[in-house]
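Lab notebook, bench 4. The sequencing result for the construct came back, and we need a structural model before the next group meeting so we can plan mutations. Quick request posted to the team channel:

Model the 3D structure of this chain.
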Amino acid sequence: ATIISVILAISAYYLSLPSPVVIYPGLIIAQREFNHNHIGNLTSTDDGKLSYDGGWSRYPLFQYHRHSLPKHPYQLPSFLGKYRIKEWEHYSFWDDEIFTIITVSNIQYAATIKISSFQIKKRLFQSKTEIQILPSFQLPEDSNYIGTHFTHTGDIFLSISCNSSTTRHIKFRTSFTEGEVTVELPKESVVSVVPFGDYGYHYSRKSIDSDGANGHVHVHHGVDDNGDISSLHKIKKARVAYDWGRGVWQYRSYKLWCSGSQTIEDGRRIALHLAVPNGNNTYATENAIFIDGVVHKLGRIDIKYDPHSLINPVTINCPENRLKEMIFLPYYDHTEESKMLGILS
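Done. Here's the predicted structure in token form:
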């Protein structure tokens, strides 16, 4: 059996976790794969509704437009729709020693920048979040935009630039870590379109690989009489997870997902991304296995876990028998809660 290094994450927005020992059964999915014949606008410029009611592709084919919004429910003024927009870019890169997580998110009236570092053998987790209230920053509408995706200077310094559709260059610095890393994404991604009723949608791109990150990370351990105590950690062909998302979300949302990767003995790169349904998954899921950068699509999955003791084993099954009885044994349990302008996350 191959052991795959896996991230398991639970995201909940203004919603309490379900009762103990939850099984999330997936739906029966009729996978609809888009191809280059479907290139165009993600939403209609007339009423802001989705051009297609769900599906997935291997490449980002649709163009997201931030100002082409669906009509707001309950006949509220249309400008209120922009306050349900959620946009983010997430990068994780890790080897057997250091795990670095970088997330930029924007909900229009507020935005966050978050950098986390986990020293695996020491079980030391450090994290820094910077919140910016109106005016919030805006991220590119295209995941393949060539140029600067984001730059910020403050308690957190962060610069993300895109040199090609698969190459990202990241510089970051905060009180406990800093670094410079180049991320090479696999040639294929899982790009999914998921509707939320008649008024919302989730458009995302997931890319996972086992040797896509190269660069260095400085870890700061404190200060002594000689000054700053830090260690340099070189990153060479480290694992990487990339999550790009744009859309108009429900006010209350909940998501359970995991990703992982490993280079196995015969040299093949194996990676996976799994998630329970979030929205209308009739025509697509985010679930896939990546083999040497090529997507092999999965349908529904079932996840069994105990939300009141997340350190307990998690069981993942694919009823299609393409992924059977995968057991996730948590190594470290970390939970964060934040409250901002009445929003709990």
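The chain has no helices and 25 strands.
Will bring this to the meeting.
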